[in-house]
Amino acid sequence: MRQVRGFAHGPTLNRRRLLAAGGAATGLMVLPGPVSAAPMERRLRAAPGRAALVGAGYPDTEVWTYEGGVPGPLLRVPQGGRLRVAVENDLPQETTVHWHGLRIPLAMDGVPILSQPPIASGETFVYDFVAKDAGTFWYHPHVRGFEQVERGLSGVLIVDEPEPLAVDRDEVWVLDDWRLDQLAQVTEDFGHPMDLSHAGRLGNTVTVNGRIVEQVPVRAGERLRLRLVNVANARHFALSFEGHRPLVVAYDGQPVAPHEPEGGLIVLGPAMRADIVLDCEGRPGDRVSIVDRFYQGREYRLLDLAYDREAPLREDPLDAPRVLASNPVPEPDLRDALTAEIVFEGGMMGGMSAGMMNGHRTDMRSLMRAGKMWAVNGIVAVGEAMEPTVTVPEGRTAHFTLVNRTAWPHPIHLHGHHFRVLTRNGAPPPHREWRDTVLLLPEDRVEVAFVAGIVGDWLLHCHVLEHMAGGMLAVVRVA
Predict the structure, then answer these.
(1) Taking a C-beta distance cutoff of 8 angstroms, is the pair 70, 46 a contact?
(2) 10, exposed or middle or buried, with CB in 10 Å at 0-12, 13-18, 19+?
(3) What are the tens digits of pLDDT across the range 372-412?
(4) What is the pLDDT averaged over residues 206-222?
């Protein structure tokens, strides 16, 4: 069997050398037409499988799949619609499914022990909830996520607006990276101490919708809605659409005033999403690169927009609104807010000397021997069932200051809620935005606020999955 040349362990990524096997296939997920508002029933069978991540002429990669595909099936339901999903576990491990970004009851949130018993091998669990908010969401396991997500278990859930944007194409790009060996197989070094204590598990192969994509065909004059979803364990993206002007219309599924992103870069930490409207302003026959510029000195071309040679679909941009209707997320009231500072610390070069683990103050060396390198307010998490860091009365506004005292970026995710981003390092964001995952760069202080709307214990954690496994996890109780 022919080997894949150039697959190297570690984060360095030279796309032209490593990813040359991609071919011209686009591998894009094109959304189907309108759906019925009737309750939607689906099955998700989680099981080992194989996927052609690298391309023709190379070995298929052994992966874990939902319904045999990487990513899993695109689920779609109208806003306000009910979704029932029977998850069958044919994996050699327990699993769950977390519905990332959805405001649903705790029992449907997919966190083992905290919200449900894990689904044992050979068993089935039925998730049943109403999709309150329109937008772009995703689903993934919350058991050994640093392994199960890396092996391929993730998928996208679209909740349709009653009045969608007028575009020529509505597409999903699932962004992922993989650490592959010389035979194009996922390396088995899950939870490696270097990944736990540094940037997380960065791969050496980047895929879009489960395969290497060299080019995406477009036509001059057409308008695209691109739903960008970062499902990687640890890789951050900062996408530059060279020579084009993408407009962001939603973050994490929640509408935002349409705007060109700062510096022209669409920045997505792990678990984050952005919906963009892209007018294809090139000429017939053009080829335009999309470049990932997040890691300085390691920039690479993700893919090309390849313009066909047909006459432009239209000479001027489509004359149609690009504003999405708001979702029914309650606005926080800061006048009577419960305030808390939540500090994230640890990791290499972070200066943390000790932390509280299992009720005992534990020095950093002992923490590292236990596979723990991170803390939230001095507490090192061991599993999800833990005492809350903050308790907020139901219906009251919580006003949190999130502080990153580490040398690494952390996408911080709050389950069951969306929050307003109020300030970043003392300055308000240029656009009022809701998030369910906010990126904290080293030494950042970010203020957020939300109405505690659903009773239960909700996770607050870093979505670099190795950081979460290494202790960067807390509980926010709504009582």
Answers:
(1) no
(2) exposed
(3) 999 999 999 998 878 999 999 999 999 999 999 999 999 99
(4) 97
pTM, to two decimals: 0.92
The strand ranges marked E within 120-204 are 124-130, 135-140, 155-160, 169-178
Banded pLDDT at 310 (limits 50, 70, 90): very high
Distance of CA 343 to the CA centre of its chain: 22
Per CATH, domain 334-478 is 2.60.40.420: yes
Q: How far apart are CA 231 and CA 145, in angstroms?
A: 11
Residues 412, 401: Cα–Cα separation, whole Å: 12
CATH architecture of 1-327: Sandwich (2.60)
CA dihedral in degrees (63, 66, 67, 71; nearest 10)?
Answer: -80
What DSSP string runs through 56-79? Answer: TTSPPEEEEEETTBSS-PPEEEET
Q: Where in the chain is CATH 2.60.40.420?
A: 1-327, 334-478
pLDDT at 6 over 70: no
